[in-house]
TrEMBL record:
Span of domain RNA polymerase sigma-70 region: 26-91
Protein name listed in UniProt: RNA polymerase sigma-70 region 2 domain-containing protein
Pfam families the UniProt entry points to: Sigma70_r2 (PF04542)
Family from the record: Belongs to the sigma-70 factor family. ECF subfamily.
Positions of transmembrane segments: none
Length: 179
């Protein structure tokens, strides 16, 4: 019997977060990226993130599950960054107005969401590959193994592995474009 295929908007590996704590944990990488993009120095970014997290946790009852957590958390991060700059009597590493910071925050949210959609598509397409092709991708991109080393280990010619990898990349590109 045919199973319905997940859509790119579905998370192929993670179920949707169900609690505030899960949402907060899931967004940490994004929030750190946003803080750095707004202009907080690398040495202070974790402090600002921690302050934002404390605020988010202390005000968790203001958030309604099922609404856009990222948008709410982004506003908190924006405010915490502006407060950090005022408290430290510093400006961002680059001189930005509050309006520019608002635009950056909005753009980072949109770009991050698009990247996540593309990664979900990529994962769906990788799942459709034959196991040996998926293993080759993992060895090369995740483990950092060169194609030459992969060929030696699997007793194949380097050229054959290179051609196979090229075909796999094209197949992934085509698959992603079709989703």
């Amino acid at each position: 019997m045919n199973q319905p295929q997940p859509t790119p908007e579905d998370s192929s590996t993670d179920s949707a977060p169900e609690t505030f704590d899960q949402l907060l944990a899931q967004e940490q990488e994004f929030l750190r990226l946003l803080i750095r993009t707004i202009g907080v120095s690398p040495s202070d970014a974790n402090d600002v993130l921690q302050e934002a997290n404390i605020y988010l946790i202390n005000n968790a009852t203001q958030f309604e599950l099922g609404t856009n957590f990222r948008a709410w958390a982004s506003k908190v991060v924006r405010y915490r960054c502006l407060q950090y700059f005022r408290d430290q009597k510093r400006r961002p590493m680059i001189n930005l107005s509050e309006q520019a910071i608002d635009l950056i925050t909005e753009e980072v949210c949109e770009q991050y969401e698009e990247t996540e959609r593309q990664l979900r598509k990529l994962n769906l397409c990788i799942d459709k590959l034959p196991a040996d092709h998926a293993d080759m991708l993992k060895a090369n991109y995740h483990d950092g193994m060169t194609l030459k080393d992969y060929a030696k280990i699997h007793k194949k010619s380097h050229m054959a592995v290179r051609k196979t990898m090229s075909r796999v990349r094209h197949a992934l590109k085509d698959c992603i474009e079709k989703l």
